[in-house]
Amino acid sequence: MLCMMAFAVLAMAQPEKEGWKLVWNDEFDADGRPDALKWDYERGYVRNYEEQWYAPENAFLRDGKLVIEARQADFPCPAYREGNSNWRNSRKRVQWTSASLITRNKFSFLYGRVEVRARIPVCMGAWPAIWLLGMEHPWPANGEIDMLEYYQHKGLPTILANACWAGDTEDDTQWDSSYTPLTHFTERDPAWAGRFHVWRMDWDSDFIRLYLDDELLNEVDLKRTINGKIRGTGINPFHYPQYLLLNLALDTRVKKFNLADFPMKYEVDYVRVYQKK
User: What is the extent of the structural domain holding 108?
Assistant: First the structure.
């Protein structure tokens, strides 16, 4: 009986799937720092005029989970340059910190299935994401896949599932996006925000399909995702490898954060990448 129970526990722990080969994963089982062989970090002010300064120390492993923590802060901004109007260099002090983990130059892949089990913060200003970027060209010609974005869209808490690529002009970015109000999930399960959920991407040469708890949120037809010729040389960025990103940003559309929501926690149970056998 004990042998059968041990076998059952072992079977449950195995992330293999029929017809799929596990090619990369992180189960975040050990306390301490994220695995440096698998993850690197973005640092400082990175994109979107966001409020948070990305710092590696805001990501840590605890109780079998990756925790990405947004915190209130107050220290001199290392990037500040007097008289410089660039948003990355014009802030004298850092008021908020968070973390962004990436697999660039450590792991990338072309086609497959990605599964991420996570619990996201849904308070005002939270902007957690699970996403991928290509490496062949500058954004957006490199292609972006957003398995998860959560933020306030038109004043409503919203789950997004997107892909984007370059249009025909320097200012033209093409998006294929879905917007699902958080109430779509919480009306069925009032405790939804307190639970872990599985975000999944199935990506092949024809489609990118994005799911949340096995519910299809968006299907992107890759016949449409051809870069314009000015920025993207007419290629399809989703026929090239991409790398993974996990981050917790603070939404620039929110003018004032509730201090009671900090430290804000985004927890990831596992990340698994499969490819067809």
Answer: 19-276
- Residue 251, domain member (yes or no): yes
> What is the dihedral angle through the alpha carbons of 221, 223, 227, 229, rounded to the nearest 10 degrees?
-160
- pTM for this prediction: 0.93
Please count the structural domains in the chain: 1
Give me the active site residues, please. 144, 149
Angle at 248 between CA 68 and CA 201, to 5 degrees: 100
Are 159 and 147 in contact, with CB atoms under 8 Å apart?
Answer: no
In a domain, 170, yes or no: yes
* CA–CA distance, 273 with 269 (Å, rounded to integer): 14
pLDDT digits (tens, 9 = 90+) for 156-193: 999 999 999 999 888 899 999 999 999 999 999 999 99
CA angle 250, 71, 244 (to 5 degrees): 55
Instruction: Please name which of 159, 245, 274, 153 lies closest in space to residue 210, comparing C-alpha atoms.
Output: 159
Q: Residues 4-29, buried b or exposed e (16+ Cβ, 10 A)? A: eeeeeeeeeeeeeeeebeeebebebe
